Amino acid sequence: MTLTQGQALSIIGMTKRTVASAASAVSAASAVSAVSAANAVSVASAVSAASEGARRHDPPGAFTVHHDGVTIPVTRGGRGRPLVFCPGLNSTQAGLHELAELLRRDYDVVTFDLRGHGPASAADRYGFDAFLSDLVAVLAELDLPTAPVLVGYSLGADLAVHCAAQCAHAVAGLVLIDGANPLPEPFITEADLAEFRAMAHDLATQQAAERVKSTAHQVSLTAQNIFDLNLEIDVVRSAILDQYRRIDHPITMIMSTSIAGDSLEGRAPRHNQLWQAGIERLVRERPHVSTSWITADHRLVFTHAQDIAEIIRSTFRPAGSATF
Predict the structure, then answer these.
(1) What is the residue range of the signal peptide feature (predicted)?
(2) Among the listed residues 251, 259, 255, the one whose alpha carbon sits nearest the alpha carbon of residue 308
(3) What are the structural domains, with CATH classification, of the chain?
(4) What is the DSSP string of 90-149?
(5) Averaged pLDDT of the chain
């Protein structure tokens, strides 16, 4: 299978179902379950401060959250209903800048970087639980008048679902952009492992060039980090329906029609069909979930920011807007 660079960047930033041995899969799933149980306690305690009322007012602008030995840069601006953006694996708040700016005139928008992404510090450990703790730490530092809507992209969507499931009072709703998809079968097979490992290597090489330039888009993860994280995230997604069952807040899915690109050859058609099948599975299980499809690949948050902003406005109306 030969993928274009755009397809590689699209696919590698999303999860792939682990295709290790049955024993390894069970071990990984058990580890994730243990992490989720521990996080249920830590999320609840960490974000409780955000719902207890204002202790101080964080002025709009940039500030830093320090936790777990890492520094997380946060940017806040705008006014109105609060939205907290959570970027995905290999994406940064700088990459979400256009979408955030489109919404700041109507919403109080908060963006931040996960550990090892953008100007956030690198870390000794990377994993789903570590990234979830970054989101939790940011929420705990915010002084918001009401619970925010979480807007998650790719991995950020999965983090938002787990946060909302484990601490419902801290969240008012979810906008999930091309992530948190409960796929009904493996996205990647044994035959694809070498190809995906190569894509992780290529992406890490590109990121190394960004680090040399010290840009806000830089990512500190190695190729092995990226590959391992995608396998772990896939285990998390295999059980994500359980998390959805615990959420009563409004959920809006904004999904790409061509997650793997628009090629009619190779494995892209299967990947795209599977991506749609996962959402169909979710809607059957949770009929209240609203879904919008955008004709795009996994880069939709960058290429279709205007469309996504309009969907968010129509679903979670700005404060003071007319309702019909």
Answers:
(1) 1-22
(2) 255
(3) 5-52+65-315 (3.40.50.1820)
(4) T--TTTTHHHHHHHTTTEEEEEE--TTBTTSPP-S--SHHHHHHHHHHHHHH---SSPPE
(5) 82
